[in-house]
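Protocol step 4 of 6: structure prediction from sequence.
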Amino acid sequence: MPAQNVNSMDEVPNSSWFTNRLSVRNMTPRELARGACPHTDDAAKVPWVVVAGKPDGANPGFQVVDARGIRALVKVDGVTQPERATAADALGAVMFHAAGYWAPCNRVTFIRKEHLELEEGAQIKRTNGTVEPLTQEAIDTIMSKATEVEPGLFRVSISEFISGRPIGPWRYEGVREDDPNDVIPHQHRRELRGMRLLAAWTDHIDTRQENTMLAWISTGKNGEGFTRHYRIDFGDMFGLINGPPGVPERFGHVGYFSPGQMLTDFLALGLIDRPWHDKRMGPAGPALGYWRAEPFDVDPWHPGYPNPAFDRATEADLAWMARIIARFTPAHIDALVQRAHFRSKIVHAEVIRIMNHRRQRILERYLTRLSPLTWPQVRGRKLCLQDLAVWTGIRDETSRRYQAVAHVEGVGRSEVLDVRAGSDARVCAELPEVQPGRYAVVVFRATSGEDGTFALWAHFTGHRDGWRLVGLERPEHAEAPAL
């Protein structure tokens, strides 16, 4: 079933779920790396007053108010994978923000214990409803699991509280009956379906409702406002090692609990060859776990928990996200990884290498079936598009071939248009003479050799002042439009 919130341009419109950023404009590497933060200054604004504990979760932490009065959640790496969890939390927020999701301002910073002041009466409120006092001993225990980069200086991640009044998590299916604006079942939203590809890129396996937050954004004095849907907590990315031996190797292949696969392996006495049997850690060792450039097969990638939106993702939904991932250039990746503040040069280099390699695998898979032509502009009688397959380098411009055919309502015959390629992988077709009141579809195809990429359909209506583009379509067939 197609996604239900796609506009006539085959895109997702801005909403309280998603706002187009990298998908509609070029962002500088510095701008992208900033994420939701107002600046790229990652220094801790001390002192920090510890006001509450972190309710639950795999990574220990606590809440602080810094010297500017900003409240934030502080988390540490744990002792198993130094630098990974804090880097993942910061970089995940940056990447999801650039892609278009609402995410908090997360960053890696460094703190000394003497800069932490425990507020009198601070508590830990567990998600099961229990409340207990937050003690200095508890803070010391948490900090003992932080990465000590030099004597007395500890590495942590800090996540500033989101805008609005938190309501609670949102789900990847259904709608909220108490929200009149929530009318599209979540499993049929393209931005949630397409998120699967962004998660596969980074091995973000913990994409469940516990890592979401719904917030009330007030817009007036009389109770007016709306709900905004945030994605939070990205600390599982980049090769999480969690669980008994044999479990971390399966991440990305099967969920935490896969009874069908478990039963099959039991009955077959473990003789079935599984893709995780030969998994090995890379040059970064435990720091990045089993997150590797190879092997990586994007199609069967699987999160750790069932996700109803991911399960319903179509080729069109995933190709939409691939067009966004294409906009993450190597320069963007270099800039955002700088914000991880890796002290290990090997880990820093490996994160960049793996991200670039996986990106190329994703683009090769999803920009070569449905049309990679995008960013349309109508200039007089010219329709210009950008060929993302050429722009990203997965196809060579010298061997690229373009064809555009116009089908005009009531004419009875098609017209082959003149097509010319320009700079920055832009290609333009000369549109036919304008016929006011007529409807037209331009079938625009880009091919390299014998590849099977389908065409883009550009829909126009004729007016006295020219052709007006009213829609884009990327059909999964090679048939001509019926007019």
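Step 5 (inspection) to follow. Residues 345-366 form the longest helix (22 residues).
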